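Please review this pair:
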Amino acid sequence: MASSVKLPLFPLQLVVFPGEELNLHIFEPRYRQLISDTEVSGQTFGIPTVLDGKMMKVATEVKLLEVSKRYPSGESDVKTAAKRVFFLENYETNLGKKLYAGGNVRFVDLDMAEDPVINEEIILLTKEIYRRLRVDREVKEAAEGFCTYDIAHYVGMSREQEYELLTLFNALDRQQFLLEHLHAIRPEIEERLDIRAKALMNGHFKHLSPPNF
């Protein structure tokens, strides 16, 4: 595990997976300042997950890709890409004299060597579920570099389940977790309209109110 570093933090009530592209609408002054600072410096920032008002310890590093739109009010739409997973060691309400939070983080060694045979089964189950729900969403093939994170938001897991998946640093553990979930929802899939709604999400800008601590 790497040595500790300090990162700006943007806690949100969602889970961000490595490799994910996340679009956000930025409107609070503290996070407008964070985006402005990272746009100039190129520094990454962290998005810790908040569950039931509690900030969780495993989180994801995010890099600002671009500010897609700026509003006269000072708000903006931004595109980001998720990078590494880390443990949050401490939380500071204000990072130095900044309006936004920060903390010391320690990046984890993430096992990405997923078993392609198991991924084939995951892909087949996912395609079956999408077919039964009449969802037109492409699922990458194992030979094309499919990863469990690719579908984690789109197969009906709760936020708590998504966070649990984020805490699984071993590739086989993630695969087994996802397989068990897919087998569990398979019998009742026609009733799971929430899965269809999530699977059809198209990268719109999320307008989320960050929690206060």
